[in-house]
Structure formats: C-alpha cells, structure tokens
From TrEMBL:
Recorded family membership: Belongs to the misato family.
Cellular compartment(s): Mitochondrion
Principal subcellular localization: mitochondrion
Higher taxonomy: Eukaryota, Viridiplantae, Streptophyta, Embryophyta, Tracheophyta
Span of domain Misato Segment II tubulin-like: 1-76
Protein name: DML1/Misato tubulin domain-containing protein
InterPro entries named among the record's database cross-references: DML1/Misato (IPR049942), DML1/Misato_tubulin (IPR029209), Misato_II_tubulin-like (IPR019605), Tubulin/FtsZ_GTPase_sf (IPR036525)
Record key words, sorted: Mitochondrion
Domain DML1/Misato tubulin positions: 104-284
One of the GO biological process terms: mitochondrion organization
GO cellular component, one term: mitochondrion
Cited Pfam families: Misat_Tub_SegII, Tubulin_3
Organism from which the protein derives: Zea mays
Amino acid sequence: MDVLYRAGETHQSVASYCPRLVSVGSRGSLGSLSSSGTLGSSSAAADEPNIFTWSGKVTKSVAKPHERNLFLQSLSEEEQNPSSSDGQNNASVEDKDLVANLENGVKFWTDYSKVQYHPQSLYELYGSWTDFDRFDNYGTAKEVVSEWSQMEEMNERLRFFVEECDHIQGIQFLVDDSGGFASVAAQFLESIVDDYTNTPVMLYCVRNPDSYGSSRNQCETIIRSLHDAVSLSKLSYYCNLMVPIGLPSLSYLSPLLSIKDEKHFHSSAICAAAMHSLSIPFRLQHVGPASDSAHSSGKLDIGELVHILSDQGRQNMITALDVAMPAPSLTDRTDLRNIQRSLHSLTPEISDEDEDPYAVESMVVHGVLDAGGKRASISQVKESICSALEGRATKPKFSHLSVSRCPLPIPLPFPSIFSSSVGQQGEILGTSHAGARPKGPLAVGSVPMAARLRSSSAIAPFIERRSASLQRLGVARGTLGSQVLHDWGFGREEVEDMAEHLAKMLRPFYPEMDLTSDSDD
C-alpha cells in the first residue's frame, strides 16, 4: 500500500499513514469530517474567504454540524483508549450494533471511512453546496471553478503529493460524471495534462444507480443527453485510459450479492472493490526479471497498462470493466462456475457480444481458492485462466494476467452485501436460502476477486450513443440543444470539435468511416 499511501508525522510528532489523495467535493459533503482531515465539526462555514468588495448587508446561514455516527464514535474511543478492551461477548454485541448502524444510517462517504487524511487532501468547492444547489449538468459548474482561484488551489494540493514522490507511475482519477463535477474534472484534468506531460492518467467515471432517474420532460432529456456527450468528449480528451463504471441497477449483478440500489453505501463498495483489484498490479513488488514469486505475478505500472489496452488491437482508449465478486474456486475447466464465466460487467450501455478478435484485455485475479478450500498457488491460477482462454471460441488479440494470493479483506465497516451462500473465506457454499439475511464483515472475513479491463467492440454502443446525441441535438442548427450548449458557454466551432473527437473515437470500430471521410474530402 506504500504505492498509494504516504508515511509522515502530525504537528504533534505522531506517526501518520495517509493516502496520496486530493478529494474535491461539494461544500458540506464531508459530513462530520473537517476539511483538515480530522473528525469534528465541518469547516465549511468556518473557512469562508474574506470578501471585501461588498459593503451592503450580509446574511449568514450556518448549517448545523453533522454528528458522528456510532461507528466513528467507536473509532474515536479506540484512539483515545487503545489499551482498553471489553470481553469477547460485549465486543461481539458492539460490532453487531455498528453493522446495523452503518446499514441504516450512512449519509456521507466519510461515515464509513477509517482512513486518516492529510490536511492537503480534502477540498470543498465554493459555490457548490450538497443540500440545495442544482449542480446536475456540465454547464452549471463552469463558472464555479473559475471563481476564488479554486483551480490553482486544487493544483497546488496535487503538486504537494506529486513532488514528494521519488517516482510517479501515473495518476488514478475518479469522478462522478453524472453532474457538474464532470466539468470540474475536465478543467482539473486539462491542468494536469499541462503540468505533468508524460504522466499517464487513468480515469474512472463512476455513477450511482440513482443517477439514471427518468427525465420529466423533453428539455430534461435533451440536457441529459448533451451532458453525457460533452462529458465523454471533454474527459476522454485529457486522459490516457477511461473506464466508465455504474449500471442503472446493481441488484441483479450476481446471485452471490445482495445489493440495494438506493444505498450508495452498497454500490460504492462494489466499485471500490473492483478498483482495488485493478490497482494490485501497480502495487506488486519487483522480484526479478520474470516478475514472478510464490505470492504474486504480473506486475504492471499504470503506463504499461495504458499501453496494453489503448495502443494495441483497435487502439481504443475506453475500456469496459468486468468483475467477479467473489470469484469462484478453481475447478474443472468445464464447470460453469469458472472465473471467466463469473465475470459481470460494471460498465453501462455496452454490447453483450464478446467475440472480438481484436480485443485486448488485462485481468487481475487474487485470493482465489483451490478445490480443497485453500489459497490456490500462482501456477494453479495461471494454468486455469490460460486453459479457459484457450477454450473460448474467439480469443482476444492480447491478454495480460496479474495474480496475487492475497484476497480482498472485508473489514468493518464493509456493508452486508453477500448472500447466505458465501462463506467465511468467500467460498461459494451452494444455493442461497430464500429470506436469509445478507452477510457482512462479521460473517465474511475476505473474498477472492477477479477484475478485467477489456478494450473491445463491446464498448462501441456506449460511444456511439453519445456521438449521435451530439450530432443530432447540438451540431444541427436551430435545435433546442444548440441553445443549451450556447448557454453552457460553447461556441459552434467548439461544439463541432467535440463532435469530431467523438466520431474519431468510433473509427477503430468502424473502419469504413475513414473511407467515407476520404471520399467526402
């Protein structure tokens, strides 16, 4: 984890271990956590800038501080009394209370965060409030970022973490691109590209199931379609690899999971687990020329992953993400529960067709069990995956495999999202019982995982829908969409450039587009 975390000391000379993170959110989005990274009253009202250009009346509205939930209170008590310990029975009852409190009371992502944050990590945008501002499309955020020199502040925070690295292999960038933060991210990414020219950027565009709510009228439908198209065009322009994540519903993702779409606590756990798995190759240690050991195999850095997925095959930089959670045990290759067949896509609007001879993929498998219930060896996993690959009707053009024996830990406060058929080590016990309560960290200690990024023709519908929307609604003259884009600050020439960029992204899937373009010229 040293690849993603930094060791340091607080002002009181207390050792700290913090993520190399810059988090940008709405004002009031930190819950009971202050922007300095400590638990307590939020600093949203306390650190307002002094404004001297207004001499009239000032009305001050102060939000009531968010109280810490039972889980955060228990963390605070542990820090204050590390040596105190209750009896085993009392601890068990307390843990059950914590699980129940988290399942029913999470409102902010900080409600279940155990991490200590550096004072440079957490930044709240002025002009964007969690509770009452409409910050729901690309145009609403353009002016917000330009005020108060906020982009300069965000860049300085990132620079702090970059400059203390001996070597930076790349930047993992996560954004909820369903609303105004797509615009914030595009502007932030643009400055990153300017400042760190040779540093690869891997972008995850993550959405919650409730972001797919139905539009109330035609105008909302047009705005939503244009937002998706503009976001894809702008964000993809400033990154090296893009991974869209977020289905309209996760409740049917797998019979081994019990997910409630209305709970962001649940959906975020799936996304985080998948991204944790994908980052494993970046965190493996070099052990020699073959980069293999008894515990891991297939080390990559971000630049190498980008090269594998976007510079080969169709040379497409938008990839689909598939996940098996938990991954099944290694069994006979004819078993329907093998790892390849257990992968479910987390990327929306893609084709079910998986027969692309130009496909390129990178798979990570970790913590898988063998037929006897023990952790499978690296060689066993590699042999099983290669055997399954050989059995596919259409093989990918290139496939990379990273393996680790370390499973995904399921600590408190992980949500209770596993079905009754999942065992203590993530083994699949059998058919789940109707009416059985979902299992969480008290019943499941860890799970084996498999995650795959694939660059193939399956992603074409995702790009095509957005390209067609921009052409139909934005480029055509006299449409309502063209006025919307104008109101968002886009001139006609910039709209045409965005449309051309999306069309260019489609050409690897439709070579005839180049022929048509040449004949038109």
